[in-house]
Design brief:
Number of domains: 1
Distance between the termini: 21 Å
Shape: globular
Helix content: under 10%
Radius of gyration: 14 Å
Oligomer: single chain
Structural class: mainly beta
Strand content: 35-45%
Low-confidence stretches: none
Length: about 80
């Protein structure tokens, strides 16, 4: 992703890029060193070639899902395969 100094970025290349945002409903349950990460309600945005994300205002043209991470569980991700 190429990012301009004013904040807008555009994906350049053949592979998807991901930007992971926190929202008002995100919960950092456990983020301690040497402990399993537990983070609820993250917002990953999948960006393909030519799609954009603005670091300043969060504007984007990608696809969005809701993701939770629990490093003490199996599977650790919900949904289990967020890349589909």
């Amino acid at each position: 992703m190429l990012i301009d100094r004013k904040g807008p970025g555009t994906v350049d290349g053949d592979f998807a890029n991901y930007v992971i945002e926190e929202t008002a409903s995100t919960a950092r349950v456990q983020v301690d060193p040497n402990r399993p990460l537990i983070h609820r309600t993250l917002r990953p945005i999948r960006l393909q070639a030519g799609q954009s994300y603005h670091l300043g205002n969060g504007g984007q043209s990608g696809s969005v899902i809701t993701l939770s991470v629990d490093g003490s569980a199996s599977p650790a991700l919900t949904p289990a395969d967020p890349y589909r």
